[in-house]
Request: fold
Amino acid sequence: MRSWPMPQLPELPGTGSRPRVADSRSGQLIALPGGQANLYVCGITPYDATHLGHAFTYVTFDVLVRALRDAGMDVNYVQNITDIDDPLFDRAEAIGVPWRELADAQIDLFRLDMDALKVVPPTSWVAVSDMLDELEENARRLIADGRAYGLTDDSGRTDYYRATSDADYSGEHLAGINLIDVFRENGGDPDRPGKKNPLDPMIWKGVEGDDFRAEGDKPGAWRPGWHLECALIGHDYLGTTISIQGGGADLVFPHQEMTSIHHRDFNPQVEALGQMNTGLVAFEGEKMSKSLGNLVLVSKLIERGFEPMAVRLLLLNHRWNDDWEYTDEQLNLAERRVTRWRRVRHTGGAGAHELLTTVRQRLADSLDTPGALAAIDEWAEVNEHNDDRDGAALFNDMCKTLLGLYL
Ligand SMILES: [Zn+2]
Reply:
């Protein structure tokens, strides 16, 4: 799918170090080999885009992409759009708009938001709706191979993957999670009678007889399983190595777990090096969600007159794996920071090369963006009244290329 414009990335002197980031599952550092990094980041379901929780995730992976490129690596970055999903259909029905129209409008809005936030577009931005033939083919294959089974009721047949043949769900990262409850809260149906295991994920819903798309190409009555979608797109676009699988922390179970299982099913040789799950963003005491009605949308903040770069700076001021709560006050502070940095962009100052080294070190150390911003603050404070054109130019280029801040 057409994404959004590539922001300008000025060349910087020297190179950065390959980022050292801990796997969200094991806590161990992800061993990224040099050369190429293959990233898969779960994309939006286009019905409540783009709230600050989404923006935090995509800006985090944007900084990762920038740091990997700065370390001389090639990056193959794939992101999906889950434009066929129950919450989208439900929302469209609730507001009386055809689901495709709602999805397209939300995808357009997401593009505008990503452009405003100066996010480097993924190498491939893939809509699930463009993968239906292949998804159907794979669902049929799993059923034919006996790795999936169907259960029928009034709404037709639903096919489930026998995930238990592959997984024992004993990973450390799942310890302490009530898997059945979390599965239920995230669209799973653990209570459906007849399931071989309550946690088996759906791979296709709404089959009639042998017809997987019972009412033609009009999803709603039927749809493929979400985990199968991400696994197939990752498999097709990234091949055998997934360097990092990313997404919000609310995707850990069942989505990312099930996606990995499907992925191994597509290719038992697939190597998944690590997972990065970004922290959740709350507002007024609760995690942002459509159902709670406490979404803070990037587009609304911009409409209210906040600068996109202040929004970006607000996001960068949090560690990627921390949960945090949004307040307007934080955004006001970010705006004051933008104004200060914009001044120093003209005055520059001594030590811009040292600052570049420090910022690179902070990013290599688990994408420590708050540390990088603090280093810039310190430098800006002593250099506000200088007149060092070279230092100013280097500072400005560094802000763009490494932090995505176009001052
Ligand atoms: Zn996904």
